[in-house]
Structures are given as structure tokens and as C-alpha cells.
Records
---
Amino acid sequence: MLESYSGISKKAGMPPGSLVHVGDFDEEDTRISVVDYSPGDLEEPVVETVEDLLKFRDKKSITWVLLEGLKNVEVTELIGRHFDIHPLVLEDILNTHQRPKFEEYDDYLYIVLKGLTVADESVANESVAPDKFEVNYEQISILVLNDFVFTFKEQKDELFLPLIQRIRNQTGKIRSLGTDYLTYAIIDSIVDQNFVLLDTMDERIDAIEEELLDDPDSCTLTSIQHLKRELIDIRRATSPQRELVAAILRSDHVLFSEKVDIYFRDVYDHVLRINESVDSYRDMLAGLLDIYVSSISNKMNEVMKILTVFASIFIPLTFIAGIYGMNFEYMPELKWKWAYPTLWVFFVTIPVALLIYFKKKKWL
Amino acid sequence: MLESYSGISKKAGMPPGSLVHVGDFDEEDTRISVVDYSPGDLEEPVVETVEDLLKFRDKKSITWVLLEGLKNVEVTELIGRHFDIHPLVLEDILNTHQRPKFEEYDDYLYIVLKGLTVADESVANESVAPDKFEVNYEQISILVLNDFVFTFKEQKDELFLPLIQRIRNQTGKIRSLGTDYLTYAIIDSIVDQNFVLLDTMDERIDAIEEELLDDPDSCTLTSIQHLKRELIDIRRATSPQRELVAAILRSDHVLFSEKVDIYFRDVYDHVLRINESVDSYRDMLAGLLDIYVSSISNKMNEVMKILTVFASIFIPLTFIAGIYGMNFEYMPELKWKWAYPTLWVFFVTIPVALLIYFKKKKWL
Amino acid sequence: MLESYSGISKKAGMPPGSLVHVGDFDEEDTRISVVDYSPGDLEEPVVETVEDLLKFRDKKSITWVLLEGLKNVEVTELIGRHFDIHPLVLEDILNTHQRPKFEEYDDYLYIVLKGLTVADESVANESVAPDKFEVNYEQISILVLNDFVFTFKEQKDELFLPLIQRIRNQTGKIRSLGTDYLTYAIIDSIVDQNFVLLDTMDERIDAIEEELLDDPDSCTLTSIQHLKRELIDIRRATSPQRELVAAILRSDHVLFSEKVDIYFRDVYDHVLRINESVDSYRDMLAGLLDIYVSSISNKMNEVMKILTVFASIFIPLTFIAGIYGMNFEYMPELKWKWAYPTLWVFFVTIPVALLIYFKKKKWL
Amino acid sequence: MLESYSGISKKAGMPPGSLVHVGDFDEEDTRISVVDYSPGDLEEPVVETVEDLLKFRDKKSITWVLLEGLKNVEVTELIGRHFDIHPLVLEDILNTHQRPKFEEYDDYLYIVLKGLTVADESVANESVAPDKFEVNYEQISILVLNDFVFTFKEQKDELFLPLIQRIRNQTGKIRSLGTDYLTYAIIDSIVDQNFVLLDTMDERIDAIEEELLDDPDSCTLTSIQHLKRELIDIRRATSPQRELVAAILRSDHVLFSEKVDIYFRDVYDHVLRINESVDSYRDMLAGLLDIYVSSISNKMNEVMKILTVFASIFIPLTFIAGIYGMNFEYMPELKWKWAYPTLWVFFVTIPVALLIYFKKKKWL
Amino acid sequence: MLESYSGISKKAGMPPGSLVHVGDFDEEDTRISVVDYSPGDLEEPVVETVEDLLKFRDKKSITWVLLEGLKNVEVTELIGRHFDIHPLVLEDILNTHQRPKFEEYDDYLYIVLKGLTVADESVANESVAPDKFEVNYEQISILVLNDFVFTFKEQKDELFLPLIQRIRNQTGKIRSLGTDYLTYAIIDSIVDQNFVLLDTMDERIDAIEEELLDDPDSCTLTSIQHLKRELIDIRRATSPQRELVAAILRSDHVLFSEKVDIYFRDVYDHVLRINESVDSYRDMLAGLLDIYVSSISNKMNEVMKILTVFASIFIPLTFIAGIYGMNFEYMPELKWKWAYPTLWVFFVTIPVALLIYFKKKKWL
């Protein structure tokens, strides 16, 4: 499930800007990593407290601060105080039920996205049916300042590792460009993650389609329904991304130079493609449901034909046998010598005639 | 039901501005409460009549007047006269079948919203099926003047209690801000109430889904249909909120300072999320209906298979027994010594063969 | 039915402006009534011919001319000539298959609306099924001039009586305002009439829903379908009203002062609400159809279960009885003393066992 | 069918402006008629070749050239050369698979429309099922020049005859107005033709509805499907007309004076109404399909009930008869004197009891 | 299938501008052809390496470079370096999962399209069912420079041969116009290719429709579903073309002169028509599915009727025969002389009566 409202509804009634963490992930502590780089220089210092970050403010380098795990509310609060972030923004960072959005402030930009990953358990865990898969919806917040970029993730994972590798590589273009390009690179990493998800979705739909042609059972229906529901959630996470990237493209904030626009246009294309895919998966699942329903009807048809063939053949014969089982005193046929063999002729020809009739009706 | 038109249709033909209360709640008298505050001061005077409010007009403080229960039309009429409110606005306050809307006048603003709460009876009352729940649609009108805010509620409840608590707390930000921020806080309280409703909705949908997988009956269909209908009503109440908050954001009325925009943007996000949830619940219910219909077909399939298996096995056997129940004089088999045991071989092998056949067809 | 095209298609090929009455109502003659009023004065003269109206042109009062029955084409033609109305407008007044619309001319405004009323016959007539109701779609044209308002109705009824009463009341606000306010009052009367219709619709849907839970038959389907079709027509009549009132609000024609805008905004809200209701009725009817279809399947399921239970129990028993009805000479069981009572044990235990089995499958 | 692509796809690969006739009508030769008129003068000369038209270029009258039959490509080519028409326009005139559109050029305007007529054969031809009807989609191109109007039709018919009659009538308004009014009159003739089609559609839908209530068979389904498909095509032909007339209304080309706008607004209303009708027919057909599907289920239900009643009554009775048909030596009942009559009591009471039971279940 | 994401998802994490070929076609080497022309001159030189192209840069002629096969990444890279193309554009050319789009750069334009062709194998290969057809989705990129046009195709085929022929023809209009007209001609070739596809689609739908009326089986359902799925993909490829050509029409880039606009408007019309056709095919397939589902129900109905007729006729008769098969000592009827013939009267009249009854119910 994308979200249960249990958390949010309990928050109803609090004043705005109340910093309370609302989320589904249970990361105990917050991990802070820093990548500080300029064209010629790279530093990855060990950072324990928020105060350790302040010294980078005076440096002319670009500082990317990665925070993983949001349970420790104080860290976010301290960053807010030191870097002068609006309390509502801090609240949104911690309350992980935000819609993807892009907000411009005088000194900084705030971007929220959903990182979609296929949950590992659904692969590892044996008890889960193979055609069910869980999607993790992780909220990733990005704060873009003049020469600082903060990313707030709910989970500790290696999503940004390839990007950090590219920064470490001194000849990479990323080293020579500003925070806007870094922001692009971060968003691009998150958006491209969706393609992995769509790959998995693709496989599942193909698997169901095969199952449908092979031997559909009520399990197949549950699988279709499960995917449909997951798709509703995925759609809710991916469809506002379109609007988000479009807003970035429209924006003329000083922090975003025009040179990066072409890169964001590229992300925009990816987002469009993802949304189109999600829409066509929706159509495909609707199609699969149609096949499923028809296949049930087809099966019942077949069952009915068998019953009808059996009943239609033997019920008349049983009647004939019943006639000559009667005990009347005056039944002349009973005494005829050839009566019994003659009856056998009927017993053979009637079924044969009916079978030919059913054959002609294509029931056999 | 969201509304029955019986009330409104009877009003058809009256001149505009006729002050008649049209509503579903039976609160006898109107309760007037007042919270008057400034950064350093807080007063919660007991107020009996509308005239008691007039003295606050000269005070430089912000005065929030809470009216609960609309049956007493005179109260609204007096407020209209003293504070110079257009008769059509007064009519809209009393006629509780308004669409959520935002209207700007020269000296004041008028906002109508629907407060959605899960009816308590549906929890307490034993006779109501547990998976049915009634939603109360209470109309809440907000009048924003220069340093007055009026809220007109149909019911007496504790919806605004947490907000009043925040005002009582002297260090709260709300004390130092104007009527626009108070308006925001009121709307936020009402909108966030919807999350509680969505929580309940969520639980009911999950319960129905479990029921469907377990043992669906015609009751399940009624539950799905009931939720669907409730959702149509919820949608009608929540979807105009989007437009409403967007209109507030676009507005450049003097009573709304730009500083509060960021808070309304937050409410806007909530409203968007609520609407998206309602839409996805709709999709989910459609999916549940599909499962229900398929499960009925599946059940019938199963019934048909049992019938077919029984009939196909015993009908031919009965025919065979019928043959040797005939009374012909010349039936040589009847005299054979091993005829009867031989027949038993058939009586055993035919059903076994048919059972193997049905097994292969996966009917058993 | 909203319209049959038989009339219009026959008109195809005529030059524009040909004044031919096309309509479904058979009012023989045209009734002309006049209400002439100013703040201090009220006159309701008897008017026989169009020429009688001309004297009011020089008076400074507001003259409302009500024409009921359109068969007498000359009346409309004369009004057109005397008040200088474009022939195409006159044609639209007489051809009662117009879409609701608002057209601005230099000296006058032309508004067409559909007045929806529940046909009386459908209540009075016994032969009509009680859950069928016919809707009358009457075209009402409004011509707004400087100090003249013409309304052209197809039928003679008392739709405008309450409004005339309000004008007669000397203290009424309507007496002191201009033709624009009168126009508003007329449109408001027509639009509010829809609420009465929606009330009836509401009752019918509730009745069908009860019928569905009670005992649906093929009649229920016809009722649903009838309402659905009626709703398609209602929608076609009400949905352009939205656009119409919006156009009036946008208009800056000299005949409409800004002061009346607030009243039209009120009408606009009503129109929005009517359209939303029509849409949600549509959804509800779709839901009812789903229930109907499922209930048929449920019923068939039940029938099949009865058949299966009967057949599965008695077919095997009949076979057993058949075995011992055979006439073989060598059937040792026939001679055993306890054979017959033993068989009765089977005759009792087999059905009991099967009944328990079916009970467990929840078929009984 | 609206179009088969066989023609167009073969044209793929040709240079633009290649003049090849692509169409479904087999008119051998092209008929050229001319109506040349001014307020005081009317001429209808016999015209054989395109060159004959050139002399009207110097006359101050309005010349309407009607071309019927497009197989003779040279005629179109010559007109193009003499009146300086862009090759692409000529290509569109000849390739009769254009979408309805309106194109403005410096010296002329180009309008393409679909003329929809019910094919005569479908009425005359006995072999065609009466509820099937074919629609002819004829492309009509209109070229509007300064004082020339060309209409290119695929077929020779009398569509424009009433219009020509109006021109012949010297007192007609059309004589005194320009090419823009003539263009309006031509488009109006074509658009109004659709009402005739809708009339036929109306009748067919009513016929199907009656059939459905009476005795639906698989033929009914085919009829519904046929109408549905025809409606898809009609929609494709009529829905771009809306856009087309709107484009004409927006246009400020010198050839169209503002005075004609009111007439085009009238056409626009007609087009809107046609499109709304097509949409509601679509909804109605969907409703009819629902009834059809339900009626099949209802029928099956009835069949099943008959079977169940018969089987449930006689199968137990047959079993009882079977018991006393057994040949055991020790069956005391066989010797009782009143055994047989007693059994008859059962034979009568059991069916009666079951019939009452089924009656109560409303199966009979 | 339009695309599997396996390729793209593996690319996730790479820096932008990484030149890696992602595609489904296995063309080993890249074929470079060149058509260099001016009004008076035509050259088709053999080109081996990218460097061979450079000499045409100084010539005043238009040079069209056709590249077929994208596996050889270096070729694209070299072109990018020599002609100063942005790395992201080069990446898009090689990654063949782009959405159709149009991008403007200072010195050049970049257009991506999907070329849709019916796969030849599906015709040639015998093992493929005749009503299944595979569509090839080939990405075609067009780079428009000042006097260079590059086309990048995935496959080697003869799509552009007719166009090259037109260039070879010295009198052709294309020789005298610029790169913008060439671009138009290329896009037109690609778009018109879709009509061939629609032709095939048309034939398949007609074939399925015939099959449905003749004798539908579960294969028919698979065919419908297959077409539906293919249509989803086709739609995804063709629907962005509309936007693309509209963007070209809106563009005021120096490389596109206004004179070519009329040609692009023509392409735009084609694209609209293709999209409308795809939409109506969608509707048609939905209609075919409805017929299929109904035909299954109809078939089951027929089967049930046969069963009911047989069972209803013979079950009562068998019971009667059963009665007189009983062995009671006191059964007076058994001794009557006319009992047996009398019974035969029943044996004949009962079935006849029932058959008449069923006939009246139209079951036979």
C-alpha cells in the first residue's frame, strides 16, 4: 500500500510546522554523509553532527549532504535553524505522505519525490506468492541552496552510489557544474529507478498472460487485482512528477541556470514515458480481466456440454428400458423372439445419431 | 445521503435573500462562543445575544465568533444587519445545501465548506451492519472581516477545540498573526478532518477485500455498493474544495496578506491528496466489484461441475441396470451365471474411468 | 423523449429566418399577459393584440410581456417587426429544438432555456407504470430590451405565478430594480424548477434500490433503463445552462449592470449543483445496473444449487434401486433375508452424507 | 464504412500535390453547372469546359460553380491553374479522405465537409435486413474566391436544389448578399442534411428497443453492433465540423464580412446539437446492449428454472418407484394390500409440496 | 511489443550523454548513403567513413545523409563531434526508446519519430497464426542543419526509396527547395507509412468480425486481445506525433521557412486522421469483445435448452414406466387388458404437449 492514513489523521489538529516524523520505515538513527566537491577538489568528510556542516558554508565548493533515516527529528530541526528553512518545509520533509511537488523560496528550492523500489522481501520471502510484489514508496526530499544540496531519504540504501562514483571521477562533467546540475542528476537517478519497477511489472503481466492462456484459476484473478491496485498507487506516485518537472522547466529562479534546462527536458521525456507506460499497463490489465472473465464462461460452457451430451443420450434410453421393465400382463412385445435384439439396435443407433448431431453443433 | 432535495425544492419560488433554515440537523438553539485575542491578551467572554458582540468592534484584537446550530434564524439575521452582510450570503449560510465556494466582497470574504465526519451512531448502534457507515455532511460557513471571523456550524461538536487550545497557548504563532492566518487554521482543521474519514474508508475497503477472498455473499455486494454511493457523495463534497483553495491562493483581497499564502499552499496539497485518494478508492471499489462478479461465476462453475460429475457417472449406469430390468422372455444374458458379476465390473470401471477423465480436466 | 427530429429535418432546405413553429405542444392560441411596473406603480392590463403593447414603449416603467403558446406565428412575427428583432432570433423562438444559449445583440439580449417539469399525466394516468415518469421539456425564450422583457413559453402553466406575486407586493425589492434583475428572477424560477425534478428522480432511484434488494425482475431493468435514458435527456437540457449563465456573468452588455452579478453568481451555483446531481444520479444508476446483473447471477446460482442437490442425492439412489430391479437368475443378494433392510441403511445414509457435504459447501 | 485505406495507402510515397482521384463513388464524367447572379440579374448558362467559366471573372456578379463527379481529374487541374489554387488544395479536393477542415489562403478560402446521406439502396434493396442502413459519406469541398464559389461533390444528386431555387427567387435575401452568405447557405444545407440522418437513426434505435422488449435474438445484437459502428463513423464525420465552424467564426479574412457571423453562429448551434445527439445515441446504444445482455441471462434463468422444477419433482418419485421395482424376496411392503394406493398418496403430495415451495420462491 | 525496459533499466545510473546503443534490431554494421543535390546538380557518392562527409560542408548543395543500423556507436559519435551536436541528442539517437519529439537548438533541429511497419515474418512465417501480426517500431531520428539533413534508422529497408527517386527526377519540386522541404518529405514518408498499417488493421478487424458471426471460439478472443494490445502500442507511437507536428508548425526557427508550413499542415491532417482511426479501431474492438461475450452466453443458452428439453420430456415418462415396474401384489392396473396401450397414449401425448409448449416459448 502506498499509504495508510493512520499516521496523518492522528496529526490532524496540530499547529502547522509541528515537527513530527510520520512514516512507514523504521530506521533507528539518521546517517549523515557529505560529498564536498569543486572542479579540482573532492572531500568526503565523516560528519557526526549538524554543526560539522557549518564550516562548508564558507567554502566555495558544492556540498551535497545526504541524510538517511528521518526518525531523529532533531537533525532536521537543526538544519532548518542553521540554514534558515521555513518550518512548513521541515514539516513536509518529516511527514512522508507528501505529493511530489516543487516549491520555490527566496533563498532555496524544495523538491519532494517518491522513490519507487521493488521490495526485496517480496523476492526473498518464500511465503509470498511469486506473482505478488510489494513496492516501497520512499519519500525523498531535496533542498537546493546556493552551494548546498540536502537530500533527505527515509531508508539507507545505495540509490545514489552510482552518482557519487561519477562525482569521484575527476574528469566527470558533474564536477565542473553547479548545484542545479547536481539537482538534475539526483532527480534523474530517482526517476530512472522507475524503469526498473516497470521492468518487473512487465514480467508479471507477461506471466499472468501466460497463466491465462494455460490454466486460469481464481488465483489469477487475485494476481490481476493485486497488480491493478499496485498500479493505482504507482500512478499516484509517478503522475505528479510530470507536473513537478514541468514546473522546474518553467521556473526562472536564480538557482537554476538556463544551461541545465536541456537536461531537465530529458528527465521530462523520461517522466512522460513512465506515465504512458503506467497508463498502458492499466489498459493491458483491463484486457487481461476481460480474458479471465471470458475464460470462466468458456469453461462453464464446456462443463454444460458434457452434462448435456451425457444426459441427452442416456435419459431417452433409460426410458425405453423402463417401458419394458413394466409388469403388465398384456404386453405382446415381451413375448416376441426378436424384441430384445431389436431394442439393442435402438440402444446403439439413438446415441450414434445424437453424437452425430452434437458433432455437427461442434459440441464435441 | 449527502442531500435530499425536499428542502430546497420547497424553497423554489421564494425571493432571493429569504432567510429560511434548510438543513438536516436538529440543533434546537444556537450556541455563541467568542475567542478574542491579541499577541498579549486573551478573552473568552460569555455571550448571550448578538448585541454583546458589538463592543469587540472597537477593540484592536482579533475576535473569533463561533456559532453552532442554525435553527435560530434571527441570530444570523442580526449579525447580517450589524456587520452589513449581503442578504444572499446570509441565505447561503442558512441553506445548508451549498457547494463549497469562496466569494469576495468589498469588506469581507465568504467561505463555505463541508465538514465530513463519520456518524457516531454507525459505530454505537448495534442494529447497523458493521461494514456500513454513515457520513455526516455538515456545512461550515466562514465570514472573514477586518478583525472579526465568524464560523457558522450546523452541529455542536468539538471540531475546533484543538485550535482554541493553540490560541490559548500564549507562545503560539497564531496569537501574533491576523485574521487571514486564523482563517487558514480553521480551514486546515476542517480539511484535515477528511483524513480521519479516509482512514475509516480504508479499513472498510480492506474488510470487504478480505470478505471477498473468504466467502462473498450478496451482502458483500450491498456493502460495495453502499461504499460506492457514499464515495460519490464524499467526492461531491471534497472535489470543489480544490477549486476553493485555489481561488483563495489566486485572490489578492486586502484581507489576505501574501505571507499566509505558503500556509494555504499547504492546505492545497492536502486537498489534492484527499481528492486523489477518493479517486483511487473509486478505482479500488470498481476492482472489488469485478472480483465479486467473477467469484459468483466461479461458484456457479463449481456447482455445475458437481452436478455434471454426479449425473455423468450415474445416468449411464442406471441405463445399464434398466436394460436388465426388462421383462422380455428371450433375454439370454439373464440366464448366464456370470452375467451379474460381469456387470459389476462395468459398474466399477465406468465411474473410475470417468473420474480419471474429469480429474484430467481438472474438475475435481 | 427530449426531441424527435421529424420536425427539424423537414425544415432542412428552407431559407434562414423562415418563421415556422416546430414543437411538441398543442396549445391552440397564444395568450398574452402583461405586467408593467415601476417602484410606485403596477399595471396588469388586458392585452389582445401586439399593437396594444406599443403604448408601453413610451412609459418609463418596466414591462414584462408573457406569451404562452407558440402556434400563432403571427404574434411573434409582429413583435419582431415592432421591436426590431433579427429574423434568426424569431426563428429560434419558434423552433423549439434550440440548445440553451445566450446571445448579445446591440439593442437586446436573447436567452433560451429549457423548463423541465414532471409531466402530470405520468402521475394521474393509471395505465402508466408507477415508476415511469415523463419529463416535459418546454422551451422558454427570453428577450431583454431596454425596458421590456418578453418571455415566450410553449405551454400555459403557472410557473411564473410566484414571481408575479412578488412583483405585486409593493415593498418587494424587485419593484425598484431594472430589467436585468427581472431577467435574473425569471431565470432563477426556471432553474429552481429543476430541483423539483431532481426530487422526483431521487424518489424513483430510492424506489428502484428497494425493489432491487427485495425482488428484482426484468421490470426493474426496464425502470433503470428508462431513468437512464431520461437522465441523458435531462443532462442535455441542463448541462448547457452552466455555459449560459457563465456567459451572462462574463458579459458586459449595457443592459446588465454589475450590481446584478451577485444574483447571477447565485444562479450559477444552483446550476453547478444541478449538474453535479445529474452526474451522480448517472453513477448511481450504473451502480444499480451492476446490482441488478449480479442479482440475476445470484438467482441462477441458487436455482442451480437446488437442482444439483436434488439430482446428486437421488440419481445414485435410483441407480442402486435399479441394480436390484434386474432380472438375472443368479443374483445371490436377492435371496438374503437382510438385504432389503440393509439397502435402506444406504438409502438413508447416502443422502445424509451428501447433505452434510453440501452444508459444508454452504449451498444450503 | 466511412473509409477503407486501400486507396490512401497506395498513394503513400507520391510527391505532394499529385492529382489522383481517390474515392468510393463511380461517377464517370464530371457535370459542371453554373449559377451566376446579382441582385437584379440571374444567369444559368450551360457550361462544357472550364474555359467557359473564365468570362464570368470580369463580371461583377457572384458565380457559383457546381462540379459533380471527381473522376475527371483534368477539370480540377484546369480550375486550379486558371484560378491560381495551391496544388495541395487540389490534391485534397480529389483525395476524398480528408477530415473536415477550414483553410485560409491569401486570395481564397478552402472548406471541406462530409455530406452524410442514408444510402438509397438500403431502403430499396430487399436483400438487406430492414434494420441495417448504410450511410454515404460524400466529401464536399468549397472554394470561396472574391466573387466565385466552387463546390466539388463526388455524387450527382439534388442536395443543392432547394438552395438554387432560393437564388432563382428574385426577392430572396441571398441575391443581395455576397459570396460569404452563399458559403453559409451551402454549409447550412450540408449540415442540416444530418438531421435527416439522425431521424433515421432515431427510428432504428426505437425499433431495436421494441425488439428488445419483445423478443431479442442474436440478430438484435448484430443490429446494435451495426448501429454502434455506424455511429463511430458518423461521429468521425460530424465532430470536426464543430471545430470547422468555430474556425470560420474566429476568422477575420477579408472574404468573410462580420454581418454573416450571426448566420454562422446559427450553423454552429446546429452542429453542437448534432454532436450532442450523436453522443446521446452512443449512450443509448450502450444502454440497449446492457438490456440485451441482461435479457439473455434472464432467459437462461427461465430455462434453468423449468429444468430444475421438472428434475426436482420427478427424480425423487422415480427413485421411490425404483425401490418397489426391486426383486428381493423379502420385501414385506410388496404384499401389503394398501401399499400401492399409499404410494400414490406420496406420488401426489410430494410434487404438490415442491410446487408450493417453488411458487414461494417465485420460480413459477 | 513496443518496448521492453530491460535495456533502459540497465542504463539507469549512467551519466547523461553516455553513448550506448539500446535497441531491438540486430543490424551488424552501419550503412551510410548520401544524396547531395541542388536544383541543377545531383550526386550520390559512395561514403565509407564519416570524414568523407566533411567535404560537402563547403558545397552550397543540400546533403542528405542516410544512416542505417545504429550498432556502430562510433559513427554517431563522430558525426556529433564534426557537426557539433549536443551529447544528449546523440544519446537519444542511440537509445531507441524515445518518445516522438521535436527539439530546437541554435544551429540544428532534432526530430524523433517511430516508423511503424508490419513485420514481414508475420506474413511469411507459416507457424504464426494468420490473424496475428507483429508491428515493427523503428526509431527514426532526423537532424536538420543548415544544408545537411541526417536520418538515423535502425533497420536497412527501402522506406526512403520513393523519396530518393523523386530527388533524382530533375524536374521535381524538391530539387529547388531547401532542407525544410526535405524534412517535410521525410516526415511525410514516415507518417504515410502508418496508412499501410491501418489497412492491415482494418483487414484483421473485418476478419475477426466475420469469424464472430460465423463460429467464435476462444481463439477469437485471443485475436481480439492481441489486436487490442497492439493498438495500445500503436497509439503510444502515433499519438505524440500530433504534438510533434504541431510543435513544428508553431516553431519559428530560422531553419524552417514559412513557405513549408502549408506542407506541414497537410502532414498534421494526416496525423490527426491516423489518430482518429486508431481511436475508432479501439472502439470497434471493444464492440467485438461485447459480441464475443454475448455469443458465449448465447451458446450456453442453446446448450441449456437442449438439455432442458430432453430432460423435461423423458424424466416424467421414465417415472411413469417406473410405476408399472413395481412388484406390488395388489396393482389392479397390471391386469387390465388396455392398460399398456393406454399408457402408450400418454407416452406419445405428453412429449407432444411439452414440445408444443417449448415451441411456443421459442426454444426450438
---
Amino acid sequence: MVNYPNGRLRTHSTVPKKKTQTGPSVTKKSISKTKGIVAFGKRGMNFEGEINSTNDYYLSHGLAVIHKKPTPIQIVKVDYPQRSRAKITEAYFRQASTTDYSGVYKGHYIDFEAKETQQKTVFPLKNFHEHQIVHMSNVLSQGGIAFVLLHFARLNETYLLPSSRLITFYYEKNGLKSIPISYIREKGYKIETNHIPRIPYLEIVNKLCEVQ
Amino acid sequence: MVNYPNGRLRTHSTVPKKKTQTGPSVTKKSISKTKGIVAFGKRGMNFEGEINSTNDYYLSHGLAVIHKKPTPIQIVKVDYPQRSRAKITEAYFRQASTTDYSGVYKGHYIDFEAKETQQKTVFPLKNFHEHQIVHMSNVLSQGGIAFVLLHFARLNETYLLPSSRLITFYYEKNGLKSIPISYIREKGYKIETNHIPRIPYLEIVNKLCEVQ
């Protein structure tokens, strides 16, 4: 198999991400994060940022190739000023039809969504749209590895919950609007956060691969 | 493994795609396609549309879960009109750092880029950015299946070229700006287009899985 040095990829993959954190660009996620300033300020980097930096680490160390998908946007109007690049002048955020993160790890297809909450005892189900649940179910049917990373900001606890457990809860506990943290602790895996990489979720994925 | 009926996913996954083909929204791809009106008009549906409809077919028949990633966009200004949703008023197209399509098929991670040309004897390499080449190389290193779908619009011929072959050509034939069609015919696989699905590329992917 051909394997070339990949020093240049890091530049490409990190530059846009850095821009979304510090530059003038705005993403749907960073907008919603301004509502949760407590967690953002306390921890120095938001949950999404920590996952992105973890994925950068995995990529640059040749451990996995996992990327965040771009935010889906519906474009309505585009201007083409002479001698400069196309400028979008009217567009709207669209709901994602799949999950945010996907990639490949030791041949396995990896698919996950990452969410955080300010709640201390439950994780609100409104964080997941039904078509995301259906997408995760489809991924499992094709032999992929699907999960959610759930961060309780005020507890500073992060869990990996396999999608099969989320799906079961979603359909069987139809009346409930939230997952109790006890269910997540029982059916999921706590991720001990590190300095580098911040959220070493592949350690848990290794366990999921063994189970399969 | 939990496996729920997935009738609703099709609705979600196809609506945005249909909008990009017939509605007021504009994507980077559809803009560039207006330059190639010949192919667009002749064939009723452009190459990207045919691949999307193929993926819809694979998804709805439970054969594979493969999606096109959203076009990456850098957002500069967002308005928040009262009582209505956020409106993006200044944004720009960004170069994709990975390939356009990815997903899972029988447990395998699938990753590909699809491009068409008006040339008859060569496929211009400018269709692929270097970081896309590096991304495909990373995917191969992790045991994923990576390839490009190349469509010669005027010949009405479509080929699947494994990324390993593209990468070899890209680095070893550094002086050349195009891949001769003879190389693609020798190292790639011709895809016989169908009525449904339009571009049955999974038949070739089955062969690639056997080789691995």
C-alpha cells in the first residue's frame, strides 16, 4: 500500500478549525455555545474544540482519520464580484441529516455525535433528532461503529454511550424527554480526560471493536 | 443489534439534495456545472446527481450508508432577525480538506471523490487538490477503501480508479498535468451505467474488498 508522508495535511485540516474558534467566521455550533458561557469560560476550550483537537492528534500520529463534517447550509443568493471570489449573500443553517463526525480507525467505520449539557442528572434527548437516530441505526446495520459522546459540563464528566444503547432508550422509553445519568453510567463508558489527547475516546472504541 | 425500520431517513436525506437540484439553493458544485452545460443538458442529470441518486438507492435498500458531505463554507456575518431564523449575510466557499463522499458498506469504510471532465483522452489532475490526495493516502493507511469515480462526459464512460493508483500516478508522474485515459482503463474499472441504480459502483467495490 502506498504511504506518503502526510505533513501537509495537518496544515489543511487545522487551519479552518482554528479560524472557527478565533477568527471572524461563525459556525452554528459556536453560536449556540455562546449560550453556555459558563462551561466555555471555565474550561478554556469548548467540548467541540476538545474533540477536534483530539482528532487532530489522532490524525497527526497516524492513529485514525476522523473529521467533523461541515455545517450544512442552504444557499439562496450568491454574488460574483468581478475579479474576486464568489460571495454568498443569503443563506440559512440546515438541520444535519447525519451525525457530525465520521472516519476510519483500523479499518472500522466510525460514526459519532458529540453533545454537552448544563444538566447534572439527565441528558436531554432534544439533543438528537430522529433522523440522526435512524442514521446511527443504519450505520450499525452495515457493521459500522456508532456512538455518542456526552459531556456533562458542570460535573466535568464525559461518557461514550454506544448508539445501540441510545437507540434502545429512544424507542423504548418514548415518554421520557431525557436520559438519566444512571442509565448512561450503567450502559456507557466514562472517558478520563487527558492533557493530550484531550478526550481519548479511541481507548473505549477498542473495547467496542472487541465486543463486535 | 437493534434494527428499526428506516423509512423516515429517506425523506430527510433526499429533501436537501432535491433542493440543490431544483430549488432556489445553489451549491459550489452546481455553479461549476453551469460551465459544463453540454454534459448537463445531454444527460438529464449531472454526474453528481446520478451518484446521489445511486446512494439514495443503496440507502433505501439497506445496501450501504454513503452520504455526500456538505459543502464547506466560511461564515463571516449572521443576522438574527426577531422571530425568524438566523440569516447568513456574508459567507464564502472554502476548499474541501477531504473527499466529498464517505460512509460504510458491509463494515468497510468507504471514501471517494467524484469528478467529470469534458476531455476525451485525459483526465486533468487539477480536479484533485494535494490535501485530498494526502487524505486518501491516510484513509488507505487506516485500512479504508478509497477511490475516485471519473466520468468522461463526451465519451459517456465512467471509471472507478482505486486511490492507490491515483496516488502513485500523482507522485511518480510529477510533471504530467493529466492522467491519460489509457492509464485509467488499465488500472481502473469501467462502470456500466444502469437505469437503477445509475452508477452501480458497489459492484466494483466488492472486487476491491476481495483484493484487500
